[in-house]
Amino acid sequence: MGHIALLDKLKSSGMIMPLDYHLALFFIRQSKLTDSLALSRFAFLIVWLNIEVRAGHVCINITQITKHNLEYRFGREYVTRIFSDLDEPTWHDWIKLCERVGQNIISDGSCLSPLIRNDNRIYFQRMWLYEKHVAAYFNSALTCQVVERQANQLLNDLFPSTSASHDIDWQKVAAALAVIHPVAIISGGPGTGKTTTISKILAVLVSMHQHDSLSPLRIVAAAPTGKAAARLTESLSKAISTLPVPKSIKQRIPIEALTLHRLLGASSNNRQYRYHQGNPLSIDILLIDEASMIDLPMMSSVIAALPNNARLILLGDKEQLSSVEAGAVFGDLCAQLQRGYSEQQVQMISQLTGYVLEAKSAQVSIADHVCLLQKSYRFSSESGIGLLANAIKAGRYPHVMTLLQSKNYSDLTFHEISCRDQYQQAVEQCANNYLNYLQIIISKSNDIKTILDSFAQFRLLCALREGPFGVLGLNEMIERLLAQKKVINLIKRDGWYIGRPIMILKNSFSLGLFNGDIGITLPSLDDANKLKVYFLLPNGEIKGVAPFRLPEHETAYAMTIHKSQGSEFGSVSIILPNEYSPLLTRSLLYTAVTRAKNHITLYSPYTIIEKTINTQIERQSGLANLLI
Ligand SMILES: Nc1ncnc2c1ncn2[C@@H]1O[C@H](COP(=O)(O)OP(=O)(O)OP(=O)(O)O)[C@@H](O)[C@H]1O
């Protein structure tokens, strides 16, 4: 089959987008290939690379372009037909093909061709450059600072050992590691004390600095989304207020977190950031929460904007979904921990904390900069949510089902969905959870914060956007059900009604609203005949915006699990679809479950839970190979 016929076939069956099609043609026109089979294979390679980058991979590994590996995206039957059209290529064939295409198209990076081949990985040039930049930064950070006696005392004061336990306090180890190294990477699940630990780390660093210098440390806290920044602001201010350190130290620790876009000085009319290598930020310490959400291009931009001697502390949960865009930098960095701590690191940790850890390597590596916090202080051993999150993380389906079906956990509820009626009931139950905030509105309360807080107590999460089990279908059903209960009035003004919750889908720097921000439509405080959408800003202020001024947005009774990342709700209901989709992965379910503070209700067929837990997609990237 010729390459045009192949591309037409892929396009007409909806397997590729017009962009994939035209990109393949563009590269083919410039390649040195002439025979029909090679052209078809090359067209497929380009299409596959583009699909995978769109799905969040940084590159593709040509040895893994096999029928088995492609099935999850195209389905078995379709892949079999495509491979037959391509005359059953083996991975040797793909490698030979890359060698024949021509250096002007695929090179090893020595000339800047649009595609780069590194070992068996194929990249678009842009991704390859980002990856090299990020790897060079972390490799250059493999230095240790001399441990001062004072640090030891400060750590002992902030992390007092309890005589009852001889366990290692990993929070203290994480803090020691952040004092020793200019770059620290701390990962932990919900409630493992990431915020508590970072507040103590900052207190140690500020205290140490106070003795050396009169000018205060310039510390900035940031997060990838507005919601995550708002949460960080709240949790950091709480953690700092309880620190057992003098007021003068607390006052030097910032409590307001920015979004990364704002930190870098993004503007709505310019794709360039104000801060970059040529105009670095004026800061000494940058702390970023929810770091698993940072994609490769953003990580590259952040480190480009850091001044030479600035410290970087990344906090996150490596088990959560990776960023929407390409890359899994935080996960790749945390994965380095398997190399073990070096002898040098173990010695320094011992000096600072008194703990004797096991050295697994003679060489220093980025593993020395990583610490995992495993003990949850939020969920007790009786908490179903904590146990469920751990069972999902470990991929233990039978244990997950035992927990879900057990009556011993008051914070877990499971409803099997096996027919349409059960699905309808599930949505009705979810809709009822939204009655509280609507009742507050109906009672004519002007207390916008209470309304927003009440709405944040519950959220319906789902995996998909399209279809009856997706955000769009669920939002429509919930709107209809709430209208039947007469708590909202769907006689809309251009789609707007009192009580409509919306989520922002695009950043608006001029309005100060960011992707993921949630607002509720209410009568305007200035003129009750008009509507405004009210948002709670990270600094605690309420902002009202006329609907017509809002950037892209959608109704937000149901939201995708991807969008919920960085947020937390009192109770969460999760509705999984009745058919398997490649989006259903272990990290997706883990992320959904860890959004809840008090209660989880899961609605799903058994088979879907099993398949979701058994599906783990590793993001393709070459970062691990580039790290020393
Ligand atoms: N070492 C500790 N001993 C006792 N309680 C702790 C300890 N560390 C943290 N906590 C408590 O556990 C709770 C969760 O801590 P924290 O908010 O720091 O965790 P987190 O990992 O930042 O949570 P998340 O990111 O999931 O919001 C807080 O109430 C905190 O006071």
Automatic annotation (TrEMBL):
Catalytic reactions on record: ATP + H2O = ADP + phosphate + H(+)
Keyword flag Transferase: no
A Gene Ontology biological process term: double-strand break repair via homologous recombination
Keywords from the UniProt entry: ATP-binding, DNA damage, DNA repair, DNA-binding, Exonuclease, Helicase, Hydrolase, Isomerase, Nuclease, Nucleotide-binding
Residues bound to ATP: 188-195
Annotated GO MF terms: 5'-3' DNA helicase activity; ATP binding; ATP hydrolysis activity; DNA binding; exodeoxyribonuclease V activity; single-stranded DNA helicase activity
Domain (RecBCD enzyme subunit RecD N-terminal) ranges: 13-123
HAMAP family, per database record: RecD
NCBIfam families assigned: PRK10875.1 (NF008127), recD (TIGR01447)
Protein name, per record: RecBCD enzyme subunit RecD
